[in-house]
Amino acid sequence: MSATELRVAEIKHTHWNSEVYEPSDDTFLLVDALQEHAPTWAKRRPRCVLELGSGSGYVITSAALLLRQLRPRLAAQVLAVDHSPAAAEATRRTLQAHQVSEVDVVVASLFGPLAERLKGSVDVLLFNPPYVPTPDDEVERGGIASAWAGGHRGRRVIDRVLPLLPELLSPKGELFMVTVTENDPKGIIAEMQPHGFQGRIAASRQADEETLSIVHLWRG
Amino acid sequence: MLSCHIKGVRNGYPFIIEVGKLAEHEADFDADFLKHIFPRINWPAFLQGAQAMNCREGLPEEATEALLEDEGFQKTFHHALLEVELEEGALVCPETGRKFPVAKGIPNMLLNEDEC
């Protein structure tokens, strides 16, 4: 089956509200990259998939649907984490609207209570971070702004997550992360090389006011 | 899979499960997945959770990888692991007694500022 025939979440079954980031160009680019990459999972057989900041749930629902379409079939532990209770509720509703029951949703700050138990076991980490360059104090302001406010160079939250990867990801672990040019995606890949990661830009797109790139890192 | 992450807490695992309401749903059976996840499971903690969630019946006091070849065990383990969910209730830290509420199947693990 070619990648583009693989089913992903549908926007008409996706929930969000004024407190939750609406699926946008960045969301769709991440899912496009996953859809293209999913056929390789038939060989890699990821058993633990985690999305950080699941928002509307469009991405994790798509990931769960992509996993379901693998042959031979594969059961995986799939987790969605968001620090916003409103977002977690939107994720839950979007999953339910797609009849996806195998995803566990947790409200937590970053990996919070999962970090310890998931050490070395995450095979696929999905992350659409708050990447927009803003004044640093906007990062902690809370509310919907925390879905996009990334502080200096848009890197404040990204730079809290990258150092956690070597411990969190499994030996076959990989990361798909949304970035914009200001985040220096190529620099991120270069920075992670000494920690045993290879990387590439899995997809790029010019959106309204930003150039989006999906950073794909894996242990090489 | 969760452990209490309040700063300074050393014995924050496993959570004590307070059941308000349980939900059951069918999950695809995959013996390979069970084999994959088994080594990551702390069996006494799992039993304690299963007991609280009313699905401990048929699960042995001790479990070894050899048991995973047994079809009866696979079915019981699969059910307890994947098909019974805490819909409403709380996860209680065994050390501090701090309660993390679970609503609509979603645990809220956020900490207050003085806990981070």
TrEMBL record, chain A:
- Keywords in alphabetical order: Methyltransferase, Nucleus, S-adenosyl-L-methionine, Transferase
Q: Which CDD domains match?
A: AdoMet_MTases (cd02440)
Q: Which SUPFAM superfamilies match?
A: S-adenosyl-L-methionine-dependent methyltransferases (SSF53335)
Q: Which GO terms describe its biological process?
A: methylation
InterPro entries, sorted: DNA_methylase_N6_adenine_CS, Euk-Arch_PrmC-MTase, PrmC-related, SAM-dependent_MTases_sf, Small_mtfrase_dom
Subcellular localization is given as: Nucleus
Every copy of the Methyltransferase small domain together lies at: 29-132
Record's keyword annotation contains Nucleus:
yes
Q: Which Gene Ontology molecular function entries are recorded, alphabetically?
A: nucleic acid binding; protein methyltransferase activity; S-adenosylmethionine-dependent methyltransferase activity
CC annotations in GO: eRF1 methyltransferase complex; nucleus
Q: Which protein family is named in the record?
A: Belongs to the eukaryotic/archaeal PrmC-related family.
Protein name (Swiss-Prot/TrEMBL): Methyltransferase small domain-containing protein
Q: What is the lineage of its organism?
A: Eukaryota, Viridiplantae, Chlorophyta, core chlorophytes, Chlorophyceae
TrEMBL record, chain B:
Give the matching InterPro entries.
Trm112, Trm112-like
Report the superkingdom from the record.
Eukaryota
> Could you provide one GO biological process annotation from this protein's UniProt record?
tRNA methylation
Instruction: Give GO MF terms, alphabetically.
Output: protein heterodimerization activity
Q: Which family does it belong to?
A: Belongs to the TRM112 family.
Q: Which PANTHER family match?
A: MULTIFUNCTIONAL METHYLTRANSFERASE SUBUNIT TRM112-LIKE PROTEIN, UPF0315 PROTEIN-RELATED
Q: Under what name is this protein listed?
A: Uncharacterized protein
The organism encoding this protein is Edaphochlamys debaryana
